[in-house]
Amino acid sequence: MYFSVHHKSFFTQNGRFDFPVMSLRAEAAQCGGVVVEFESDDIRQARKSRSITGSALIYLKGPKFLIYVSGALSMWGDRMWHFAISVFLIELYGRNLLLTAVFGLVVAGSVLLLGALIGDWVDRNPRNKVAHASLFIQNISVTVCSIVLMLVFSYKEWIEQIWDGWLTVVCYTVVIILADVANLASTALTIAIQRDWIVVITGYNRGHLAGMNATMRRIDQVTNILAPLAVGQVMTLASNVVGCGFILGWNLVSLIVEFIFLSRVYRIVPALSVKPQVDEEEDQDFLESHGDRTSSQGDCPLRAAAELTEGNCNISLNLKEITNLPVCFQRFKCLLSTCKEGWQAYYRQPVFLAGMGLAFLYTTVLGFDCITTGYAYTQGISGSLLSLLMGVSAITGLMGTVMFTKLRKAYGLVNTGVISSCLHLGCLLLCVCSVFAPGSPVDLSLLMPLSEPNGTAAGPGGVEGQSQKHTWILGGSNQPLLPDRSSIHWTNNTVLFDNIPSGNTPDSYISIILLFLGVITARVGLWSFDLTVTQLLQENICESERGVVNGVQSSMNYLMDLLHFIMVISAPQPQHFGILVIISVLFITTGHTMYFLYARKAKRKHQLDT
C-alpha cells in the first residue's frame, strides 16, 4: 500500500510555488494507495467560519426569526400605545379617571361579546388575509387615533368652544372607538399568529413549539418594561403631541416591516396556505357523531336513520325561519348563533378545564397593576422602588419561561403544569401571611358593618376617618382601569402624580415585604403555568376551531378580569386590601384545582390508551 502526502502549495518570502516532489497522488491512485491530505489551520478555520456564517444567514432568513421580529415590533407598539392612551385620556379629562374607566369597560366588554366572532372570522378566512387585515386595521386605527389626539391637544381650547363643548365629547368618543377597534384587531392578530401560525411553522413538533412559545413570551416581558419607558421619556422630555407623533411614526414603519415579514413567512412555509374549511369539519363531526350513535344502537338502524332525518328537518326549519326574517335580523341571529356555537365548542374541548383554570387567574390583585402599586404607594413605598420591583418581577417572569422549557423536556407538558401550579400557590402563601403580619392595615371589622352600627358614626380616628384618608388611591395611577392583557398580568410602569403625597409610614414593613416577595417569586410559576396552558390549547384544539376557541378564551379572561375590578370597586380602601388578597388567592386556588382535575383526567386517558 502506498501513501501519498499532498500539499497543494508552498509559500516563501519570494512568492508562491508548487511543491511537485511531495505530490505522488497519481502514483498512489494507480497502485490502489490511500491519499492523505493535510489542511492547514487557516483553511480549516475559514471553512468553519463560512459554515457558521451560512447557518446564521439561514436562520435570519427563516420563518422563526421573522416571526420573532414581527412579534417584537407588534408587542412594542401595543405596549407603547396602551401606556400612552391611558395618560392621554387622563390629561384630556383634567386628570380624572372617568375616560380611562369608560375606555377600560368598552375594551373589556367588546372582547367579551365579540371574542367568539373574532375567532370564527380567523377560522373561516385564509391565514394571510387574516394577518394582513388585522395588521392593517390595528395600525391604521392607532395612526388615525394619534392624529385626532394631536389635534385635540393642539387646539383643545378652540374645540371646547364649538357646539357648547359637544365637539370635545365627539372627539373623546372617536378616540375611544378607534382605540377599541385597534384592540380588537390586536386580539385577532394575536390569535392568528401566536395560536395558529406558530403551530404550523414548528411542524406540530412539541419541542419546537415550546421553544417558540417561550421566546415569544420573553419578548413580551422585555417589551412590557422597555416600551412604556421609551414612550414615557419622549412624552416627558417633549410633549404629549410629540408623543402622539412618535407613536404614529412607529406604527407606520411597523406596519410596513410586519407586512413584508409576514408575507415572506407565508411564502416560505407552504403549510400555512393549506387550511381546512370549517363547514367541512363540522359536517364530518356531525356525521361521525351520528355514525357512532348508529353503531352503538346496533339493531336499531331505522331509529338512527329517523333521528338523523328528524335532525335534518329541524335544521331545515331553522334555516327557513331565519330566511323569513328581515336582512338585519338574519345577520344578527347568525351572529348570535356563531357566538353560541363558539362557546359550545369551547366547552366540549378536552382542555376546557385547563383554559378555565387559566381564566380564573385573572381575578387577582396580586400583580403589578394599578391596584397593587397604588396600595404599595399608600404604605410608604416610593415610585423609584416600585419601578425597581417591577424590573425584578420581569426577571422572575423570564426565569419562569426558562423553567417551563426545562420542566417540559424532563417531565412532560401536563406534569409541568402541575409543578408550576404548586410553585405558584406556594409563593402566594407569603401574600396571605402578609395580611396578618405586623404593619398590615387590614381591618376585618369592616366586613361586619351591620353588626356595629355605631362604627359608621366614628370620629376622625374611626373607620370613617380611615376610609376618607386615602380616597385618592386609585386616582394616583395613570394606567387604564382595565388594561389590555395578552398575558396574565399587565406589568407596565405606573406613573404617579407628583403633587400627591405618599402614604403614612407604617409601623413595620414586614407586611409589605412579604406581599411583594410573594408576588415577585410567584411569577416564576405563573408564567410557566401560562405557557403550559397555552401549549395545551395549541396542541389539543383541532385546526378548524383554533381561532374560535382561543377567541372565547380571550372573552373568559376579560370576564374574570372584570370581576377583579368589581372586587376593587366594592372594597376600595387600603384596609380592604388584605381581604382582596385572600379572595384573590381563593380564585387562583380554584383555577389551579381545575387544572389538577384536567391533569388527572388526561393521565387516566393516557393510561387507558397505553
TrEMBL record:
It is found in: Membrane. GO terms for molecular function: iron ion transmembrane transporter activity. GO terms for cellular component: membrane. InterPro entries: Ferroportin-1, MFS_trans_sf. The chain crosses the membrane at residues 56-77, 97-118, 130-153, 165-185, 247-266, 351-377, 383-405, 417-437, 508-526, 577-598. May be involved in iron transport and iron homeostasis. Belongs to the ferroportin (FP) (TC 2.A.100) family. SLC40A subfamily. This is Solute carrier family 40 member. It comes from Anguilla anguilla (European freshwater eel). The lineage of its organism: Eukaryota, Metazoa, Chordata, Craniata, Vertebrata.
